[in-house]
């Protein structure tokens, strides 16, 4: 787990490449505090910051070369099956370290770019093939590790994080064409980034740069239930019980190989099912008390510490609680600086606070990330099922239900009954994909006209949600729920959830491993129809069957809050309220050329009055303001296009 940067050119090494790459890896020091290395050669310069996890000796240092020095690599991540790969490769290649990095080198010698298909892990790496003068960039299937690149006058530059590319001299101009997508989703999906001329390598993709030409290829895509089970040689499970029998051994193996570490290891344990299953399986493997860590909130409805304590007691772990208070939101500006881009997932702050405390105890943690996407755990998936039944009700019955809901007291907050029901009914009458758009959006595209300035509206595409819409249609034979779940695996998971976890944890030099996102587990589960993963309207049925007998009953049947922040309450008082008002209503706010001057004040006033809950919208604008103020050059000013 590390940070990488580099530059390649078609001919000789670019002038000043060594200094350029050194600036890049200096900006990545937080990702790799255990060492650094730079290697220059004709046509390429590679840089690396090291977080030593496997083979702590100098033999594991990078950049690393093969036996004859014709292939060099810088690597960020972990290859969990490197032991198995090594057993085969040792018959034909001399190994000089115990590092998983070396296995990639020797695999490439035999398979070329196809080597990525044999890797089971999380990774982003750059490999220079001096014989063919070829640069290979690769990113893991689910997108756990980030990688960005940009064309330069002399060739191509790449880095783990956008600020490193900026330090290497890549332009920092904001790309206003992504503004509508960011406001709708709270993030900018790959291959776009918020900076002009800079691209993010999509999950499951590789890039080849050779003879001055760049080619991007996808080597893996999320499976589709409509195209049959993975592997194809086996019949599809008929129900959740059969699916659990097939997936259980895969998940147990996934946990086991992710416990390989030469440094202390623990588990992020929320009060939910996903991390409880991972913790219980890990505890059975280690044979000694496992270290588990959770977050404690003062606010009711967010704190899951009682449930996580139950799981910790059941598995006999050494459990530690980390309190998160409203002042934690003051870390938001520094976190956005680390990421180098706007990411409006508020749990970024909670994961960072947890990572800060955990890093003092261990260097690696397992997490339950991916359970909701792979096993259909989100309320939104349940809403699709319920909405299908709602649409079949007579018009009079639907009208009466809406009238009764309007008569209920209480503000329209997402976490109370009326707020959840109001949001559901606002979308349930539409077709399934339009309903999903409503449920995932912070600002629906129809609402952007009241938020954006005319200058900004003229520069955004007609369909800001096109990345999702293209995925909805990618497998025409898929059911709406299967299509939505596949889109979430392809976009929401890598571009929001995993980017948040990587950014928040690596800011503290903490490695997070996700057993539920082993690609073999994902393929086996996500290729099953929704009726198997979510019989009826309760999700995660496969995981619940695997959890029986190893996690407490309350956790087995409960619903988790996760590590989300109580932003709606924090915006009504304390430091977050002050930060939002001071940042968004200032006459000198960086968003002024893009966002109508009156919009932030209106949203804040309505939120404070309790007439509406605009927590996600306000947080999105606040994150954008911090990004534009500190990291990018706005492309739109008031009155300018």
Notes on the structure:
The protein is of the alpha+beta class and about 650 residues long. Among the domains are: about 1-220, 4-Layer Sandwich (Glutamine Phosphoribosylpyrophosphate, subunit 1, domain 1), CATH 3.60.20.10; about 225-375 and about 495-555, HUPs (Rossmann fold, 3-Layer(aba) Sandwich), CATH 3.40.50.620. Strands 2-3-1-9-8-10 form a six-stranded antiparallel β-sheet. The chain has a six-stranded antiparallel β-sheet with strand order 4-5-6-7-11-12, with helices on one face. A five-stranded parallel β-sheet has the order 15-14-13-16-17, with helices on both faces. The longest helix is centred in the C-terminal third of the chain and has 27 residues, at about 480-505. The radius of gyration is 24 Å and the shape is globular.
Q: What is the beta-strand fraction?
A: 5-15%
- The DSSP helix count reads 26
Mean pLDDT: 90
Query: In order across it, which strands form the biggest sheet?
Result: 2-3-1-9-8-10
CATH homolog superfamily of the domain at 2-218:
Aminohydrolase, N-terminal nucleophile (Ntn) domain
Shape by Cα distribution: globular
Question: How many E strands?
Answer: 17
Distance between the termini: 42 Å
CATH architecture of the domain at 2-218: 4-Layer Sandwich
CATH class of the domain at 2-218: Alpha Beta
- The computed structural class is alpha+beta
């Amino acid at each position: 787990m590390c940070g990488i940067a580099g530059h390649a050119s078609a001919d000789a090494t670019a002038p000043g490449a060594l200094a350029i790459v050194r600036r890049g890896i200096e900006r990545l020091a937080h990702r790799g505090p255990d060492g650094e290395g730079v290697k220059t050669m004709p046509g390429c310069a590679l840089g690396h910051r090291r977080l030593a996890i496997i083979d702590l000796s100098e033999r594991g240092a990078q950049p690393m070369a093969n036996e004859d020095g014709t292939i060099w690599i810088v690597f960020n991540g972990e290859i969990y099956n490197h032991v198995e790969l090594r057993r085969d490769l040792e018959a034909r290649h001399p190994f000089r370290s115990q590092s998983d990095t070396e296995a990639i080198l020797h695999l490439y010698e035999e398979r070329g770019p196809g080597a990525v298909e044999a890797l089971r892990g999380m990774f982003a790496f750059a490999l220079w093939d001096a014989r063919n003068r070829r640069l290979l960039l690769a990113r893991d299937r689910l997108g756990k590790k980030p990688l960005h690149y940009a064309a330069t006058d002399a060739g191509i530059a790449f880095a783990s994080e956008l600020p490193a590319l900026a330090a290497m001299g890549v332009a920092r101009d904001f790309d206003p064409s992504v503004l509508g997508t960011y406001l709708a989703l709270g993030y900018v999906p790959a291959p776009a980034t918020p900076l002009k001329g800079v691209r993010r390598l999509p999950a499951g993709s590789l890039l080849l740069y050779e003879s001055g030409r760049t080619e991007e290829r996808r080597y893996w895509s999320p499976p589709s239930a409509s195209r049959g089970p993975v592997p194809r040689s086996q019949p599809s499970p008929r129900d959740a019980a059969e699916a659990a029998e097939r997936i259980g051994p895969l998940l147990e193996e996934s946990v086991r190989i992710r416990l390989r570490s030469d440094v202390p290891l623990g588990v992020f344990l929320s009060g939910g099912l996903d991390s409880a299953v991972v913790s219980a399986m890990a505890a059975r493997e280690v044979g000694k008390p496992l270290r588990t860590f959770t977050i404690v909130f003062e606010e009711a409805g967010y704190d899951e510490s009682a449930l996580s304590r139950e799981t910790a007691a059941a598995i006999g772990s050494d459990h530690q609680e980390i309190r998160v208070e409203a002042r934690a939101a003051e870390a938001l500006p520094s976190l956005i600086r680390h990421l180098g881009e706007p990411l409006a997932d508020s749990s970024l702050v909670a994961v960072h606070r947890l990572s800060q405390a955990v890093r003092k105890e261990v260097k690696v943690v397992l997490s339950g990330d991916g359970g909701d996407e792979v096993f259909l755990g989100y309320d939104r998936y349940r809403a699709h099922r319920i909405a299908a039944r709602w649409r079949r009700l007579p018009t009079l019955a639907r009208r009466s239900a809406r009238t009764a809901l309007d008569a209920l007291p209480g503000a329209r907050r997402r976490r109370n009954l009326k707020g959840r029901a109001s949001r559901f009914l606002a979308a349930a009458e539409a077709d399934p994909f339009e309903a999903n758009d409503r449920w995932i959006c912070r600002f629906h595209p129809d609402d952007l006209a009241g938020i954006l300035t005319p200058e900004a509206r003229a520069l955004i595409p007609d369909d800001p949600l096109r990345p999702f819409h293209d995925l909805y249609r990618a497998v025409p034979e898929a059911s709406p729920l299967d299509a939505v779940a596949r889109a979430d695996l392809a976009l929401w998971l890598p571009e929001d959830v995993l980017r948040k976890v990587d950014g928040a944890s690596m800011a503290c030099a903490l490695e997070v491993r996700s057993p539920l996102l082993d690609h073999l587990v994902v393929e086996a589960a996500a290729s099953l129809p929704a009726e198997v993963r979510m019989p009826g309207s309760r999700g995660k049925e496969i995981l619940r069957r695997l959890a029986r007998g190893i996690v407490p009953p309350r956790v087995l049947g409960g619903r988790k809050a996760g590590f989300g922040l109580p932003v709606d309450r924090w915006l009504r008082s304390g430091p977050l309220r002050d930060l939002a008002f001071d940042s968004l209503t200032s006459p000198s706010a960086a968003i002024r050329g893009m966002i109508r001057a009156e919009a932030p004040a209106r949203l804040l006033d309505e939120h404070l009055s309790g007439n509406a809950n605009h927590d996600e919208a306000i947080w999105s604008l606040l994150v954008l303001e911090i990004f534009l103020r500190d990291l990018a050059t706005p492309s739109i000013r008031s009155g300018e296009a």
